[in-house]
Specification:
The protein is mainly beta. It has one helix at residues 106-125; strands spanning 5-6, 34-43, 49-57, 61-66, 75-80, 84-93, 97-102, 142-147, 152-160, 164-168, 178-181, 184-191, 195-200. The protein folds into 2 domains: 5-123, Thrombin, subunit H (Beta Barrel), CATH 2.40.10; 127-212, Thrombin, subunit H.
Length: 213
Amino acid sequence: MGNLRTGKPAMYSQQTPHNVGQRQPPPARAFQRVTVNVEGRLMLADHEEYPCTATEMSPGDVEFSCFGRPRINERVIAYLDHLGRIEGVVNEVGTNGFSVVINATDRKREKLAAQLTWIANKHELGLPEDRRHDRLTPRKSATELFLEDGTRYSCRLVDLSLSGAAIDVEIRPPLGTPVRLGSMRGRVVRHFMEGVAIEFASVQSRESLREFL
């Protein structure tokens, strides 16, 4: 699969109705889409697999560009770079692609919202753009942020690479503040809507990130 590439910078906003239940598809446009360019593979109901690209996405729906042509209401399962498994039901089919209403728990939608915020603003966050340091999808997102005085804050990993991370956290330490994320030392390089971006003091090994992967 190819590398994830972002569209134009934009702050992601979510407009979740209160009556959306667990794993119930939200009404069309219940969430605001952002432009993305995320490659992956998807499987249609007949178990045929196709390369695909998500071109617009929200926690509620996704627009795919794909050679495969499903039917309306057909179930689709996709595996997208850095976002993982997405499943749902086709609600629109066009000339160049189709839209899928995502079937997910509220928790999964919250995670997608944070990931899409990161994707939409990646270039604005200022994390190193070294192509050798591919973005990783954390399996364990819950961790702690430590300040130099020993104060700790619960936080959640939004995005991770060998050279930096983005976290969802309640505080906004000043830019340049030395911090420790788990066992990794670094400094705050940007603020964004849900939290902060951290650049590690040195490039990490995959072994050092094993606790999150």
